[in-house]
Q: What sequence folds into this?
């Protein structure tokens, strides 16, 4: 087995992972629809210091209003390379004048990618370099390449490793979390069917998950494409553009503001609060199958 990994300083982002020459990651701006339009320009961005959306894209920190756009600013910033080996790439984003004007906290954010055979592990590490508690949200947004024709035929589905009797699907209202749950689309408490209309109303966002793993499968071929281990992440989102030849399987530690949110950043649901001079680390692993 021969694997190749490519990453970039922009967003400290993974942009390619090939096994025996076959690409597994969505290729961003290179993938266009029938009208020549780009489906989605990204590949596998980190979501920091927020996941999802804020009310009016604004939040209150220390009594002052700050603007942070959907999924945060880290994915659009230049990271510094730390280590680059064939099977281990690491980058860091350090707080600076630009970040402090939008998010008044000192931090270091490390994106690390490690390969071992057919397995690709993404590791996020946040270090509080300041003197006060650091509140933040974090999550992954990897997009995996799929076949457009197989998608149109409705052959793809996702399957949890265990039955999910306690799972809830969050209802989105203009990108914010509503007060009621969305309809559960699962079959036999384990399977989420995927077709060209699954994401007509935006992402599927889940909480209350029992499983640590989820697999992407093709019912026509009987093949398993990949398995993601998202142990410890309390949320999992599934998203794509309508009819697009990729699917995002996104492990999150937090999510968008609730429609009734106070707007105070430190009061966000599931916000992580990191003490000064300490660090937080999380990871998810994807195992690709033949």
A:
């Amino acid at each position: 087995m021969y694997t190749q990994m490519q990453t970039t300083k922009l967003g400290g982002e993974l942009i390619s992972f090939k096994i025996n020459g076959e690409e597994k990651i969505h290729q961003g701006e290179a993938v266009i629809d029938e009208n020549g339009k780009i489906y989605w320009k990204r590949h596998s961005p980190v979501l920091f210091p927020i996941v999802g959306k804020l009310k009016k894209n604004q939040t209150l920190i220390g009594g002052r209003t700050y603007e942070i756009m959907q999924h945060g600013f880290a994915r659009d910033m230049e990271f510094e390379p730390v280590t680059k080996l064939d099977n281990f790439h690491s980058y860091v984003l350090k707080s600076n004048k630009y970040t402090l004007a939008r998010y008044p906290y000192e931090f270091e954010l490390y994106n690390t990618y490690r390969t071992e055979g057919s397995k690709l592990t993404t590791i996020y590490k946040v270090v509080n370099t300041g003197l006060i508690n650091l509140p933040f949200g974090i999550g992954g947004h990897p997009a995996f390449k799929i076949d457009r024709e197989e998608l149109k035929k409705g052959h793809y589905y996702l399957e949890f490793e265990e039955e999910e009797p306690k799972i809830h699907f969050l209802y989105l209202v203009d990108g914010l979390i509503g007060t009621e749950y969305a309809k559960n689309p699962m079959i036999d408490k384990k399977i989420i069917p995927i077709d060209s209309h699954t994401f007509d109303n935006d992402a599927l966002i889940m909480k209350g998950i029992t499983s640590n793993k989820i697999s992407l499968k093709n019912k026509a071929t009987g093949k398993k494409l990949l398995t993601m281990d998202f142990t410890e992440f309390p949320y999992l989102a599934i998203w794509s553009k309508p009819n697009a030849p990729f699917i995002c399987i996104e492990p999150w530690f937090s999510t968008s503001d609730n429609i009734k949110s106070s707007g105070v950043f430190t009061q966000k649901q599931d916000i992580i609060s990191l003490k000064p001079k300490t660090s937080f680390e999380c990871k998810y692993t994807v195992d690709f199958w033949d």
About this structure: The chain has a mean pLDDT of 96. The chain has one domain: 3-288. Helices lie at 97-102, 148-152. Residues 97-102 form the longest helix (6 residues).
